[in-house]
Design a protein that fits this description.
Domain D-glutamate N-acetyltransferase-like N-terminal: 46-124
Largest sheet: 6 strands, parallel
InterPro entries: DgcN-like (IPR011669), DgcN-like_C (IPR035086), DgcN-like_N (IPR035402), P-loop_NTPase (IPR027417)
Distance between the termini: 38 Å
Shape: globular
Protein name: N-acetyltransferase DgcN
Number of domains: 2
Radius of gyration: 20 Å
Structural class: alpha/beta
Domain D-glutamate N-acetyltransferase-like C-terminal: 132-327
CATH superfamily of the largest domain: P-loop containing nucleotide triphosphate hydrolases
CATH class of the largest domain: Alpha Beta
CATH topology of the largest domain: Rossmann fold
Order of helices and strands: EHEHEHEHEEHEHHEHEHEHEH
Length: 332
């Protein structure tokens, strides 16, 4: 486990979606976060006290979490300098970027000299196997999306907690850096060699006989040219009984691809169900979850009603509305 409390890193970020790891920790593990570190040119906040590296250490932070995501997952000179300052102040450093902290010689040497640790969250297990698609026991739900970064992790955690509140056994199965930092375990599926993606998810969600649910965090989108491969492997490995579609209704284009429109929800549902049927012939859609954080409050309910009418499925914001209609669909 990564030592808490955390100081959450925002750095020079200006993209709200790019700080999703820090934001996720602030939302789902607030008791373990002492503050946020950001430079003067960063206009964003996760709602925690702003602190310098030294102030974070003085407040008791044991780990600086580099809770940002960028294209390619690389560390620039500024980020390395900030990680160095954290080590100098006596903090461990954790990151979920594709470039590993341990592969930066200066950081590795300083951590060893200080007796501190570098945590590379995007390290897949070493014993992965190729998926088979053979039936296994248990009930599994997978979140999917019209795009990446539309709220799949938030929805997955919210669904897990809602099931648990009903007294139903349920486990959140993390597949991305943020989810793994929140849960303390999981498989960073976008760092897995392609041949092993479905097998990694089979290992993450082995058969279970308690009638409980593995609620699996989705990644990417079948309609995103950059990340559809990861989404496909997840659909095959999950062998899901149910899927929930996640969507950001105010997003104008696919993330990182200006001018490329998001698919329609009905179209995206149909594509995901078709791909999922390779390993789960009876998979079904049970709901749509919206990220309404950028919407006017009075527009949310009418939009949910319209999408429900269009899809024939319950549609809610999982963070502000009851998930009971979706849970009822699971029992139908």
């Amino acid at each position: 486990m990564i030592p808490a409390p955390f100081l959450l890193y925002l750095g020079h970020s200006s993209d709200f979606a790019g700080i999703k790891t820090s934001r996720g920790l602030a939302v789902f593990r607030p008791e373990d976060c002492v503050g946020e570190f950001r430079h003067d040119d960063c206009p964003l906040s996760v709602g925690l006290p702003r602190m310098t590296i030294a102030e974070g250490a003085a407040a008791g932070a044991k780990t600086l979490v580099l809770g940002i995501a960028n294209s390619g997952g690389v560390m620039g000179a500024d980020l390395v300098a900030d990680a160095t300052a954290a080590l100098e102040a006596g903090m461990n450093v954790a990151a979920g970027l594709h470039q590993r902290l341990r592969d930066v010689p200066a950081l590795k040497a300083l951590a060893e000299a200080k007796g501190l640790q570098l945590f590379d969250v995007r390290d897949p297990p070493a014993d992965l196997v190729v998926g088979t698609g053979y039936p296994r026991a248990g009930r599994r739900l997978l979140t999917v999306g019209t795009d990446c970064s539309v709220g799949k992790m938030y929805t997955t955690i919210a669904l897990t907690r809602a099931l648990q509140a009903r007294g139903i056994p349920a486990d959140f199965r993390a597949t991305g850096q943020t989810g793994i930092l929140i849960a303390g375990e999981g498989v960073p599926v976008d760092a897995v060699v392609a041949d092993f993606i479905s097998g990694a998810i089979e290992m993450l969600t082995p058969g279970r006989a308690d009638r409980g649910w593995d609620v699996i965090e989705g990644q990417g989108s079948l309609f995103h040219p950059s990340f559809a491969g990861v989404s496909t492997g997840l659909l095959h490995g999950a062998q899901a009984e149910a899927i929930v579609m996640c969507h950001d209704p105010v997003r104008e284009s696919m993330r990182g691809l200006p001018g490329r429109k998001l698919p329609g929800i009905v179209e995206c549902l149909a594509a995901n169900l078709q791909v999922a049927r390779l390993t789960s012939a009876h998979v079904r859609a049970v709901g749509v979850c919206l990220n309404t954080s950028a919407m006017a409050k009075d527009a949310i309910a009418p939009l949910c009603e319209a999408i429900a009418a269009e899809t024939g499925l319950p549609c809610v914001d999982p963070m502000t509305m009851s998930l009971d209609p979706i849970l009822d669909m699971l029992d139908a």
